[in-house]
Amino acid sequence: MATAGDAGKLLAWLLTLSELLCWCCALRDVMLVMPPVARAGSSVTLQCLYDLESDTLYSVKWYRGNFEFYRSTPHESPPKRAFSYPDFHVDLSQSDEHKVTLRRVPLHMSGTFACEVSLDAPNFSTYVKKGQLLVLDTVRRPLLTVSKNVYRPGDELEANCTMPSAASAEPLPPELAPAPPAPRYSGQPGQPLLPELPPLQAHQLTAEQRRHLQKDADDNPPVSFGFWVNNKPVPAAYVQQRPWSAAMLRPVAEADFSPQGELRLKCVATLADKYREPSHVVTVRRQVAVEEPPVVVTEANSAVHAPLPGSADRSVDAREYSRVSMCSSSGPR
């Protein structure tokens, strides 16, 4: 028979379970919607979508790495705040509790972005969603190179296509630190907490430091490459995709050459199915076969070499050859 103590324990357990269920269901379908790739200098909108159900939103905070750069608190004044961060330009007019818009994003903004959604009383639950943004310098075209400029039918046409990117971009601004520590926060009660940025360091970063800083361990950027021969796509079987480049090895056919003996090759880099950047067209030529000059024979054991290229194409018979030889031998001594 259940006692009053058992009933109390059961009630406490049910209340705890109710709180857990409420906490689990307080935020539903939290999603971070952001482009995986952005063009350097363009505007980017990041969206944090969620379903509060019957709860009340307290704040939405946005971070790049450990740095908070934007906060939306609908029940405070002002409801929107943008915090200082090097080269971060938040467009407050295009930002709210569901989205934030960044203007003129630079290359070194590649990295991890996160939105943090917090509920007000009584739940006080928080949910964080993260995503990767890759900023590419797509103003420059992909670089297309070939192993040689002259080919014969049956040769292997070898080409490489490389995309200028955050991994191979120009050195970062020297005032940018390669690995900034976590920010320290200072402020008075009731005042917004502004990130106190670490001292800026002035030195030249190595390629590996740039790669680590700008890609944030994202070793598989969403870049794919395609090759075209005379405006016809090359089958994927001849193309080897790499993180930032692609190699093509394809046999050359007689039909690949124009009547003028030219073959036109180009490559196209596709970034996250959003940007398409073609390379310059590279023209290679058909190799012209070089034939050995024939040997002209007019009489047994009497042969002379064929004329050199550019001279008259004529045969010399043996009698003429003998006469010329005799004249040469009977000259003045």
Automatic annotation (TrEMBL):
Residues 1-26 form the signal peptide. Keywords: Signal. Residues 188-197 have a biased composition (Low complexity). Residues 165-197, 306-333 are annotated as: Disordered. InterPro entries: Ig-like_dom (IPR007110), Ig-like_dom_sf (IPR036179), Ig-like_fold (IPR013783). It comes from the Eukaryota. Residues 41-125 form the Ig-like domain. Residues 171-183 have a biased composition (Pro residues). PROSITE patterns: IG_LIKE. This is Ig-like domain-containing protein.
